[in-house]
Amino acid sequence: MTITEKKVIQETNNDTILEVNNLKKYFPIKGGVLRRTVGHVKAVDDVSLKVFRGETLGIVGESGSGKSTLGRVILRLLSPTDGQILFENEDITSKSNRQLRPIRKDMQIVFQDPYASLNPSMSVQELIEEPLIVQTNLDKNERKKKVNEILDKVGLRTSDQLKYPHEFSGGQRQRISIARALVLNPKFVVCDEPVSALDVSIQAQVLNLMADLQDELNLTYLFISHDLSVVKHISDRVAVMYLGRIAEVAPKREIYEKPLHPYTQALLSSIPTVDKNSRREKIILQGDLPSPSNPPSGCPFRTRCPKAFDLCSEVRPELKDMGNNHYVACHLYE
Amino acid sequence: MEKTPILEVKDLKTYFYLEGNKVAKAVDGVDFQIYPGETVALVGESGSGKSITSLSIMKLIDKPGKIEGGSILFSGTDLISLTEKQMTKIRGNDMAMIFQEPMTALNPVFTIGNQIMESLRKHQKISKKEAYIKAVELLKIVGFPRAEETIREYPHQLSGGMRQRAMIAIALSCNPKLLIADEPTTALDATIQAQILTLLDEMKEKFHMSILLITHDLGIVAEHADRVMVMYGGQIVESTSVERLFENPLHPYTRGLLESLPSIDREVERLGAIKGIVPPAFNFPKGCRFSDRCPYAMEECHQSNPKLLEIETNHQARCFLYKESV
Ligand SMILES: Nc1ncnc2c1ncn2[C@@H]1O[C@H](COP(=O)(O)OP(=O)(O)OP(=O)(O)O)[C@@H](O)[C@H]1O
Ligand SMILES: Nc1ncnc2c1ncn2[C@@H]1O[C@H](COP(=O)(O)OP(=O)(O)OP(=O)(O)O)[C@@H](O)[C@H]1O
Ligand code: SF4
Ligand SMILES: [Mg+2]
Ligand SMILES: [Mg+2]
Description:
The structure holds two protein chains of two kinds.
Chain A: H1 3-13, E1 16-31, E2 36-52, E3 56-60, H2 67-74, E4 82-87, E5 90-91, H3 97-104, E6 107-110, H4 114-117, H5 124-135, H6 140-153, H7 170-182, E7 188-192, H8 200-217, E8 220-224, H9 228-234, E9 237-242, E10 245-251, H10 252-257, H11 262-269, H12 310-314, E11 320-321, E12 327-328
Parallel strand pairs in A: 3-8, 3-9, 6-7, 7-8
Antiparallel strand pairs in A: 1-2, 1-4, 4-5, 9-10, 10-12, 11-12
Helix pairs in contact in A: 5-6, 5-7, 6-7, 7-8
Chain B: E1 7-18, E2 22-34, E3 39-43, H1 50-57, E4 65-74, E5 77-78, H2 84-90, E6 95-98, H3 102-105, H4 112-123, H5 128-141, H6 147-150, H7 160-172, E7 178-182, H8 190-207, E8 210-215, H9 218-224, E9 227-232, E10 235-241, H10 242-247, H11 252-260, E11 309-312, E12 315-317
Parallel strand pairs in B: 3-8, 3-9, 6-7, 7-8
Antiparallel strand pairs in B: 1-2, 1-4, 4-5, 9-10, 10-12, 11-12
Helix pairs in contact in B: 4-5, 5-7, 7-8
Residues 261-262, 299, 301-302, 305, 307-308, 312, 317, 330-332 of chain A line the site of iron/sulfur cluster.
Domain ABC transporter (chain B): 7-258
Subcellular location (chain B): Cell membrane
Organism (chain B): Fervidibacillus halotolerans
């Protein structure tokens, strides 16, 4: 299936696998001797989005913009402060851990750092078998068969099973994490910077693998990255986050060719590229990202926005439908 | 460019002596020149020897590492033969360095102002008052509008991008002829990276410096360097002007790197991954160091390591696919 075909399918049957409404995650900031809550880090602040079955939704944004928190809250690895999460039309917002158990095997996560996320004292075989023991009633032989199958799929040798994580290179370790996430045959996978720690030649191997597995296993990805080139390569749609909010979301061609939000425009222009002909004029933003514990009033981007005007400091812009599945939160488009 | 180079590195070798009699040949026969006013990029994947090359030039190699051979001519002086005391004079004077993680290079217990003023007074005979005025001026140049306040702040009070700008101010405080920037923006976000790289370009003009820019990002090379050297396995495998490298890459490794890069301009279904992994510096394959991953490898590639030869005018490559131009 080509990328365009895939898009047409989504738009026609619009099969939503995940829906998030007004999601918030605030972390308390404790202070003083009594460790009282003195404020909140608004890591995710009123996010609404849909993910369609079979697509890859890329999430980009600078460090601290709330990408990982969003991914974790969606999987209910963190409890939301407010809002709603629907997975396959089922409200999972306030389900208990026990109630979540049967759903968990459908939703998995691959982390950035394969060092930190793999227990160093477990062999590859144990690492991959563990989720099967926890989540399924398969017997030993069936589990063994599954482990072998998935090892083969991610391009590791069956003989690698008895080795430990430190005996592998970064790229191979990431294959182990992917195998671990996919062994339960999930429908939806949050990929949190899965290639950010890898060299480009290895990154390409892992990205190709993830694309192949998606086709083969009909996976849906929420792909988090701060690398806009990687996200463009792998995604069907892209959402841009800024200070816990979505600034813009659109099909990838739309957003890369016609970015509307001033932040998206600056972000795209700032990526150094080897292709002289498509180099954009750099929009150099002044200043740094404000603290998410004390976000600016109105539009969160207004303190760095070259186009900000009076209204921007007074009213918070909501996501507005611009047609072609393109949404933007900016007062310039009202 | 018919000028004399400001830096000329010849056959540089830096080895690390590891347990079990293993020798990591981190830098193994590196030759290059840097001319006044140019930015030369050193690009390559993790472990290829970029940082060790730059640390060798600064003579900051510690045990178990050792500079085993070659020469480093800086403004005509061979640094290899200098004593540590003589070297200290050059470091942070004619030659300065900024790193990926500025926190490791900044002293956490002194204010930013303290550190710039100390650096200024180490290299110039000026009073405290003059140093203060100069420090404020430098901070303004590198983009701190409230420099009078910043000067009183400690490193931990600054964001990553601000710390890197403070590092640049310290580096500039001694008016260096050569600035070595080792992945100066790798830890920073895209919009902040753009700020810093633009600043470095401006500073190069303003202070008439040369820059050795170490990076693994070919996009940065394309936009900010004049010449480029591609490093693999402790050696330079290709060296030419930036235009040439992207128009006509010669070495199979360079080509592989370019194909494995996802681009925001092109759309491809699959990336051209290079098979295998970067070999460790204590265990290179026999022959050409890229031979175990190279799609073009021939018989002789597994026998001996090719030399870096001039294939076309001002374009060198280390690969048996090419013959030296005469
Ligand atoms: N457990 C926590 N407790 C308190 N604050 C947190 C916690 N986790 C995240 N935060 C804060 O929430 C904000 C968003 O963090 P998050 O990790 O989601 O960002 P991110 O976009 O993934 O960034 P990065 O690109 O650096 O991974 C940050 O300000 C962070 O410091
Ligand atoms: N202190 C050390 N002890 C042993 N080996 C070392 C030491 N420092 C570096 N090396 C080895 O030297 C080689 C080159 O390292 P170097 O740090 O120069 O790589 P690099 O190109 O800068 O990589 P990166 O992109 O990861 O910064 C590596 O194989 C590394 O393992
Ligand atoms: S609302 Fe204003 S500040 Fe926000 S993005 Fe639009 S123009 Fe910029
Ligand atoms: Mg994150
Ligand atoms: Mg390095």
